[in-house]
Write a structure and sequence with these properties.
This protein has a domain of 65 residues. Helix 3 crosses helix 4, helix 3 packs parallel to helix 5 and helix 5 runs parallel beside helix 6. The chain contains 9 helices and 11 strands. The chain has 255 residues and is an alpha/beta fold. The strands form 2 sheets. The chain has a 6-stranded mixed β-sheet, with helices on both faces. Bound molecules: adenosine-5'-triphosphate (ATP) and magnesium ion. The site of magnesium ion (MG) has 3 residues, from helix 1.
């Protein structure tokens, strides 16, 4: 089997004495789409924030490909890579939140080209060609010179996805990418994520859209109380859950 694109092992995270992640072990293979579901407060966003180094882990390890970015030493302290190694690790993934991904004062074009040029030091003409191709792929032709407030929520979210893809990440993380959108705009965002899945882009998606998770994910992970309660094929976890907590959660959606 291929090496995981991303893995976390025995990860723990607390805010003060409030333990939010307990002994989380999760890995993602190239081309795999993993949907994370579960009740509010279960630790889904914290897991993504730890994976993308917006939060520090208190225990365990994080790896991107063959690079260990954080690990727990014999003293029990977690050490992170630094400097160039950290910067390289951070350019291996993209992150799309519910909203507020875009710089409000920049046009769509500049939002997409900014990080490739500023962070990755890529050639401007090449970054622009890529931005135009992403704009076309995301169905955003005509919005190049608009600023985010001139776009619909669905267009903003598709521009956010284009912005994340412009860094050529190995993996994309999504935290409830459609929960701030009206139902009709949700469909257009889910459609582009489906398209990325069909292109074998590796993704971890936190979502409350159960039909979407069933349809697009290779694996569904159910989290509650800071732990992975169960995981497996979508038909198994969503259709024939083994754990009572999973059944209780899903009952609210099937009602
Ligand atoms: N920065 C923080 N400081 C203190 N507590 C936090 C912080 N971030 C999250 N928490 C707490 O951690 C727990 C898990 O929160 P998290 O946002 O990860 O849950 P979630 O599964 O994403 O929930 P939702 O479905 O509502 O988005 C919650 O009890 C939350 O209050
Ligand atoms: Mg959340």
């Amino acid at each position: 089997m291929a090496e995981p694109i991303f893995s976390m092992e025995h990860v723990g995270k607390a805010f003060g004495d409030h333990v939010v992640l307990r002994d989380i072990t999760l890995d993602v293979r190239p081309g795999e789409v993993v949907a994370i579901i579960g009740p509010s407060g279960g630790g889904k966003s914290t897991l993504l924030r730890c994976a993308t180094m917006l939060e520090r882990i208190d225990a365990g390890s994080l790896r991107y490909g063959d690079v260990t970015v954080a690990s727990t030493g014999s003293t029990g302290q977690v050490a992170y890579v630094k400097g160039d190694e950290l910067r390289r690790a951070k350019s291996r993934f993209g992150l799309v939140f519910q909203s507020y991904n875009l710089f409000p004062h920049m046009t769509v074009m500049r939002n997409i080209m900014d990080a490739p040029i500023a962070v990755q030091k890529r050639d401007r003409a090449e970054a622009e060609r890529q931005a135009r191709s992403l704009i076309e792929k995301m169905g955003l032709v005509g919005t190049e010179d608009k600023v985010p407030c001139q776009l619909s929520g669905g267009q903003q979210q598709r521009a956010s996805i284009a912005r994340a893809l412009a860094l050529n990440p190995d993996i994309l993380f999504f935290d409830e990418p459609t929960s701030a959108l009206d139902p009709e705009l949700t469909g257009e965002v889910l459609k582009v994520i489906r398209q990325l899945a069909a292109e074998d882009i590796t993704m971890i998606i936190v979502t409350h859209e159960m039909a979407f998770a069933r349809d697009v994910a290779d694996r569904v992970v159910f989290m509650d109380g800071g732990t992975i309660v169960e995981q497996g094929a979508p038909d198994q976890v969503l259709g024939n859950p083994q754990q009572e907590r999973t059944r209780a959660f899903l009952a609210r959606y099937n009602a």
